[in-house]
Amino acid sequence: MSSIHDLATWEPLLRLVRASNEERLAAPGGYLTGQISLGSWSVPVRRPRLVPGRAAQVEDMQDEFTAVERVQDALRADGANGVSFMVETAADGRTLLHVVESGPAVEPGFMSPFVGSLLLVEGAVPEPWRRLPEEVPGATPAPSADPALLERTLRERLPDAIGATEEEIAAAEARLGVALPDELKALYRVTRARWEDWGDDYAAQERVSNAVGCELFSLDGLYIADAASRPCPWQFAADDAVVTTPEAAVQGLVGSPGWIVFGDNGGGDRLAVDLTPGPGGHKGQVIVIDHERTIGAGLRADSLTGMVTDLPDGWHQDRDADGPPVVARVNTHYLGSVEAAAHPELEVLCIGWRKGAPVSLAPVAGLPRLRTLTAIPGALADPLEIAGLTGLEYLSLGPEEWRVLLDAGAVPRSLSAAGIEVQGEQHPLPILDLADELLALWDRPLIGRTVLDAGR
Predict the structure, then answer these.
(1) What is the spatial distance between Cα 224 and Cα 364, in angstroms, rounded to a whole number?
(2) Three-state DSSP class for 104?
(3) Beta bridge partners of residue 318, listed in sequence order
(4) Distances from the Cα of 191 to the Cαs of 186, 211, 235, 305, 333, in angstroms?
(5) What CA–CA distance (Å, rounded) separates 431 from 427?
(6) Alpha-carbon distance 337 to 214, whole Å?
(7) 3-state secondary structure string, 309-375?
(8) pTM (two decimals)
């Protein structure tokens, strides 16, 4: 037995939970939940009041830290990243600890207790993460692109820099599997931007950043910003859509094999040379990949030469494609009906809280591109109408709606992932049972559960 399944591992935390929640756990059926990972935790423990005029000190929460670290040590020993738990008072007054290990077929939960999206097909990713760039016939470098001018400008600004050799550039191309554009080669011929070249001279690194207009990665640090480099949980990624307007400079992709990342703006946003521009862009333009977004990129400059010579501030990114006709949200703040959302281009339909009777899905039945449906509990008049949505790859419903589909044998087999919409406080165990039932339909690993008896 792994130590994460030993009561001794949990006893210090259990003492704190019980002491902090005596009233909640006094009666049979009372329960509390928490999560612990190697990097963070959320546990139902009352923390001591802070002393007025004094900042929180480590010793104020030392008991909590020590108890959590004991569980984290067990996770490390097991090679696990995290665990969820529930402390429950049984009918006979005993305290039961439910240790819940989601396993490889369940993403971390954000709204539902313990359960994020269920990964029904191993390795499957949402459609936007499968989308490759469109060919743009006639795409050419911008008139401002001038590798010779770029190299001269940088040599004037960085006369003492150590540049990359042709062999080092060729090695980078071989590693990336793509030929570097001439402007990028010109940049690295002036400076290869290696820390070992600067030693402890932080001013030298700052001079390079000022000369180029960003925190420049070394030649060895170049990477391709393809879709896999920008992971996102199904729960959120399934709501995204790739849309590139006819005039867009940058394609609205998650990532591209033609986005070569070479730097950072100092705030976590990546700068890349774009070899797969949109219809209104230029090959080799500089784009910014916003770390707070999961899709799309903004335009920084129409060429690397232009960025270095002009040193522009900021960047421009087109409005997100989070709206009709591709993405439709039916609720009190957006669209008022499913009829208003129905469109041949519809990919994502999210039904939230709204006034009035539950809605019918008949208006969107048979739409060729509809791949995502999310609906809060009670929003659908007849969950069995989901049978008319033949192209779904992600479906998220309330427990009762899932029960209807399961009992009727009508869970869509086209699904790659699924979610359980939980609103308000619901006991976690029935949700876990439901999740296991869905996973079993695809013969996926079930959620691991161990019940430990902590006595009275």
Answers:
(1) 38
(2) coil
(3) none
(4) 9, 11, 42, 15, 52
(5) 7
(6) 47
(7) HHCCCCCECCCCCCCCCCEEEECCCCECCHHHHCCCCCCEEEECCCCCCCECCHHHCCCCCCCEEEE
(8) 0.91
CA dihedral 160, 166, 168, 170 (to 10 degrees): 150
Burial group, residue 116, by CB count within 10 angstroms (0-12, 13-18, 19+): buried
Q: Which residues contact 73 (CB under 8 A, 6 or more apart)?
A: none
> Which residues, given as ranges, of the chain have pLDDT below 70?
1-2, 50-51, 53-60, 110-114, 318-322
Helices (H), 408-453: 428-441
- Is the distance from CB of 306 to CB of 285 less than 8 angstroms? no
DSSP annotation string for 110-138: SSSSS---EE-STT---HHHHPPPPP-TT
For residue 233, give the nearest of 397, 399, 115 by alpha carbon.
115
What is the reported pLDDT for 361?
98
How high does pLDDT run on average in the chain? 93
* CA 249 – CA 318 distance, rounded (Å): 9
5 token code pair: 């399944």
Q: Which two tokens stand for residue 118?
A: 């269920």
Distance CA 185, CA 189 (A): 6
Rounded CA gap, 422 and 434, in Å?
12
* Side-chain half-sphere CA neighbours of 24 within 13 A: 14
Looking at residue 319, its pLDDT comes to: 65
DSSP H helix total and E strand total for the chain? 13, 17
Which tokens in the block code for residue 174? 């071989």
Listing DSSP states for 245-296 in one string gives -TT-SS---S--TTEEEEEE-SSS-EEEEESS--TTS-TTEEEEE-TT-SS-
> Which pLDDT score is estimated for 17?
95
Contacts of 136 (CB under 8 A, 6+ apart): 276, 277, 278, 279, 281
The token pair at 428 is 């976690």
The residue type at 65: F
ω before 325 within 30° of 0 (cis)? yes
- Residue 157 is predicted with a pLDDT of 97
Chain position carrying tokens 């009041």: 49
Q: What angle do CA 408, 413, 416 make, to 5 degrees?
A: 130
DSSP state of 445: P
Place of tokens 């612990």: 36
The CA R_g of the chain, rounded to the nearest whole Å, is 27
Tokens in use for 444? Answer: 């996926």
